[in-house]
Amino acid sequence: MLPTYSSSGSKVVPRHHSGGYAASNGYPRNKDFKFDISPHRGDDFQLETVRYYDLSNVQGTARGWEREERILLCVPLREAEAHLPMFFSHLHNFTYPHHLIDLAFLVSDSTDRTLEVLTEGLEGLQADEAPGMSYGEISIIEKDFGQTVNQDAESRHGFAAQASRRKLMAQARNWLLTAALRPYHSWVYWRDVDVETAPFTILEDLMRHNKDVIVPISGQGIDKDTDVWRPLPEWLGGEQPYDLNSWQESETALALADTLDEDAVIVEGYAEYATWRPHLAYLRDPYGDPDMEMEIDGVGGVSILAKARVFRYGVHFPAFSFEKHAETEGFGKMARLMDFSVVGLPHYTIWHLYEPSEMEAEKRAAEEEEKRQQEMEKKIQEEFSFGDAKSQWEKDKEAASSMAKEKEKQGADSAEQPRKSGRPSREVEEVSHGVDT
């Protein structure tokens, strides 16, 4: 079960909770708490425990599961109710020891049941009696950032919304990280909630490279925020890259950056910014070595594994224009600037949930409507035997037509027979009878 923080039985601390927290500063004031860390504490203040952490032991290694290195799994959520069941199926399947993974969620700017579904899913996950299923510490954080861009593909990925949207996304990531990162975490793993399929061993697979920052395959697609391929319907060719945010810097892009305003944010995949950067997406080979590495400067945010020390040194997700980039791409640039290793795996593929554009959605809706009409007509024909009646009518019509043609043929044969036998026709006989011999 998740820890209970209020007497109402809720597993999530509600906003503006007044039962145990001061309304002004959030410090515990309730006498039931062991610690009173209010700046206005009284004489009864006691510090029971002093914890000592040696951060040299949490640097992150290539085989962290053997050294019991803890991972902080961070998941930003917004209007994510529909995707959470799929996400929890992934949580069940991770092969990295679950007790070494702490979960942290930030729910922001949501009007659906994201928070309720998340809480229910976590309670079910922690109550699972299967060996090794329960996770470590779980944090749920609520914070709105005023994000007003709709979550549909057309709105989220329109060029005009990119700069402001990504700056707010950077704020959300930073709030989540700073609230959840503990001194005992060796790694931080960022994961989008709408990843459809990924190897169960992804944490170990990425960790084995022992890089400061590492991401799976990059790609090009409708969603320009991540570097992940996605399966598509057959009528769209079956698959296409999903994101262009993992890339190597180019001289063209650097020259472009020099011409832009101070607050400008370059985003990939738009005609407005032709950067000519090499993208991981275009290097994908389905038969390539999944362990092949490529140094990159920009980073996509769907699946990032980073050593916790990267953040402790001050690297973050810029919520402003940092070298003309923001959020995960700015994070990659900042990490490189501070001499951390940043690599991508162009042949290691995870699949993102298919997000149709408005045009694709209309096409699919038209196809589904046509299919529905065909199925309805077929059902009506089967129920009322219209198909059999029509078939029998066609058979009768053909039979009648054949009989008529046969009679015409017989009549023609009868008229032709006298000529063949040498006998004159009736008209000839009548004329002959009228001649005076």
Automatic annotation (TrEMBL):
Molecular functions per Gene Ontology: alpha-1,6-mannosyltransferase activity; phosphatidylinositol-4,5-bisphosphate phospholipase C activity
Protein family per UniProt: Belongs to the ANP1/MMN9/VAN1 family.
InterPro entries: Mannan_Polymerase_Subunit, Nucleotide-diphossugar_trans, PLipase_C_Pinositol-sp_Y
Topology in membrane: Single-pass type II membrane protein
Annotated GO CC locations: mannan polymerase complex
Protein name: Mannan polymerase II complex anp1 subunit
Organism in which the protein naturally occurs: Cytospora paraplurivora
Origin superkingdom: Eukaryota
Main localization, broad class: Golgi
Record domain PI-PLC Y-box: where: 195-245
Bias kind Basic and acidic residues: ranges: 362-382, 391-437
Disordered, as annotated region: 1-25, 362-437
